[in-house]
Amino acid sequence: MAGIIFFSLPYTIHTICPYAIVCFGLSKNILIQYLGNPFAITIAFSFLILVLTIFGSRLFCAYICPLGTLQEIIYTLFGKKRKNRKQIPQFQERRFASVKYIVLVVTIILSLIGVNYIFIHLCPVYALSLLPDIAVWGLIVTLVIIVAGIFLERFWCRFLCPYAALMNLFQHLGQLVHFPRLKIHRNLERCNDCELCSLSCPMNINITEDEYVQNPNCILCFKCAEKCPKPETLKGKMEK
Predict the structure, then answer these.
(1) CA dihedral 105, 106, 107, 111 (to 10 degrees)
(2) Per-residue tens of pLDDT for the chain, all 240 residues
(3) pTM, whole model, 2 decimals?
(4) Which domains does the chain possess?
């Protein structure tokens, strides 16, 4: 719901996109350039989300991100109505999910050398912020994400989003210094391994693999807990 509110704000959603800093260029002195204008909020918001990610996983994706909200709406309207919906195999999921790290590296390099204009008009969030005067390439990318999202739930979040990749890296950083992090916890005594939780996961995560969901792609949407036939089996819990 928070993502829907983002669409109605008086400024463009790209202004408050945490990755907008990279889109608008890292080659300049950002603090001087942006201090005192709306993008000072972007900088603060971006780092706040990254810090919260260390302790709260990718809550941003499930409850704040406007593009995540759009994908959820599209899949609810069209994807769930398809018959024989299946998740892709885990080895393919891991392979395709690695693409977002490539997107992260490429966009940061382009931004650092000052040619961020190459990808900024391909950014779906930037494209949505330009409505109704949306750029052609931005429109194409956005439509591809929407169509792909009908067949693969949260397609952008799982495979292409560079900010998701960055949040995953910050989660690993938190693990290295042994910070506690909010995760899905499975009560092993109550669980009967029916796998309904894994089948309902929009991020295609194997929920029953461990006692705690260790996959950094978990967005803590708790759809797995909603689908579980045994109440109180899956809960959010801090793991040290």
Answers:
(1) 100
(2) 444 445 445 445 566 677 777 776 665 555 455 555 556 777 778 888 899 999 988 999 999 888 888 899 999 888 776 666 667 899 999 999 999 999 999 988 888 887 766 677 777 777 766 656 666 777 888 889 989 999 899 999 999 999 999 999 999 999 998 899 999 999 999 999 999 999 999 999 999 999 999 999 999 999 999 999 999 999 999 987
(3) 0.85
(4) 2-179 (no CATH), 180-240 (3.30.70.20)
